[in-house]
Amino acid sequence: MNYETIIGLEIHAELSTKTKAFCNCKNEFGGEVNTNCCPVCMGYPGALPVLNKKVVEYAVKAGLALGCEISLYSKTDRKNYFYPDLPKAYQISQYDTPLCKNGKIKIEVDGKEKYIGITRIHIEEDAGKLIHGTESEDYSLVDFNRSGVPLIEIVSEPDIRSPLEARLYLEKLKGILEYLEISDCKMQEGSLRCDANISIRPVGQKEFGTKTEIKNMNSMKALQRALEYEEERHKKVLSEGGTIVQETRRWDEAKGITVSMRTKEQAHDYRYFPEPDLVPIILTEEWIEGIKKDLPELPDEKRKRFVREYGIPDYDASVLTLTKELSDFFETCAKGHKNPKAISNWVMGEVLRIMKEKELELKDLRIKPEFLRKLVDLVDEGVLSSTGAKQVFEEMFKTGEEPESLVDKLGLRQISDEGAIVELVKKVLSENQKSVEDYKNGKTNALGYLVGQCMKASKGKGNPQIINKILKDLLS
């Protein structure tokens, strides 16, 4: 039987406000345990929350960027459940009146555009963090620094039809949030987290199948792999006459499997009710319009502009605008430069390669944008060969030195003086008469051999374009 996959994603993004959602504690990652906390975020009896206005502003920014309707009236609610790092035994969230609703994200799959609906965006607070001992250490500790950190939860419609689409959706969403500068979206630090709901149904059936939820996915690759595994597991269970159980599962990266955690909760299990310690959130059209006017250029707009202004292919522009940091680096290099396509090639090729190999972020590289501009100039001017340029690039990465000084330091300056090259070519021709005769008899590949001999004679410093031209002139 042929099945159709149905996927919906719930994305939690920590907001980059200076303070937490309902108190004045610092909102920062990596502080000493239990130093950024107070009676409010630790749930002491009688401690009262006060909503951080920036949290609402950032959530509205996200909503506007994702084409959502913004609610002029919304409220907060208590989501009741017990967990060791949730000292109040409830989380302040939003239930039936989310701040934003009915948005969409456009992705491109196999060259075709597709829109994924966004059901809602609501604000809530994060829980603390449990720190577990090793297998031989029978204990768990609680760090409340993360307790009360502001989140937005972005819930998609069940419009996603494959694990690949899910990954593309999350990549696109991550890019938009980074461009808005409302979240750093570092999945490795937990500031962007993804839960996925997946079910399958026979092709042509209207009713959804029983879904499972997958948690604990901390990378784009993990999301796609977990969904692929779960998709096949569902098919296998049904093909063998079994029944899918609605449950929450976690992704085990090391084993490459999902593992059952608990049966899936329903909304009524949380016993939502309006948060009595906070007033409703009432916005004005003027305030929302002010935020809308300040929205930055978003990835899709920037991609089109890069194609228009810099004359690069759409594929290049889509790669270069995947993150704000990368797009800013490229534009700093390419602005006003005569060869933006060459810069695009270097950024997509060598820059991304070395970042991946060394597991570095762009800000950690010693290679400054002006250095990359100059490196392209040196190649275009014939001072450096493409091979020599890669050697200079590697040294720039290691030392942070500017390229022109490295050219002489490494002895890579090309010989472009035509007079000197003419003499060198004449010598090579006199020593390779058979190849000369072969070329004159129509064996054009002999020219490549002669170019190679000239490059060898020049110890790799001869300008290959000039050598090629002079060879053809002398052989004609």
From TrEMBL:
Taxonomic superkingdom: Bacteria
Family annotation (Pfam families): GatB_N, GatB_Yqey
Enzyme Commission number, as recorded: 6.3.5.-
GO molecular function, one term: transferase activity
Domain annotation Asn/Gln amidotransferase: ranges: 328-475
Catalysed transformations (reactions): L-aspartyl-tRNA(Asn) + L-glutamine + ATP + H2O = L-asparaginyl-tRNA(Asn) + L-glutamate + ADP + phosphate + 2 H(+); L-glutamyl-tRNA(Gln) + L-glutamine + ATP + H2O = L-glutaminyl-tRNA(Gln) + L-glutamate + ADP + phosphate + H(+)
Keywords tagged on the record: ATP-binding, Ligase, Nucleotide-binding, Protein biosynthesis, Transferase
EC main group: ligase
PROSITE patterns with a match to the protein in the record: GATB
Stored NCBIfam families: gatB, PRK05477.1-2, PRK05477.1-4
Family indicated by similarity: Belongs to the GatB/GatE family. GatB subfamily.
Main function: Allows the formation of correctly charged Asn-tRNA(Asn) or Gln-tRNA(Gln) through the transamidation of misacylated Asp-tRNA(Asn) or Glu-tRNA(Gln) in organisms which lack either or both of asparaginyl-tRNA or glutaminyl-tRNA synthetases. The reaction takes place in the presence of glutamine and ATP through an activated phospho-Asp-tRNA(Asn) or phospho-Glu-tRNA(Gln).
Protein name (Swiss-Prot/TrEMBL): Aspartyl/glutamyl-tRNA(Asn/Gln) amidotransferase subunit B
Source organism of the structure: Lutispora thermophila DSM 19022
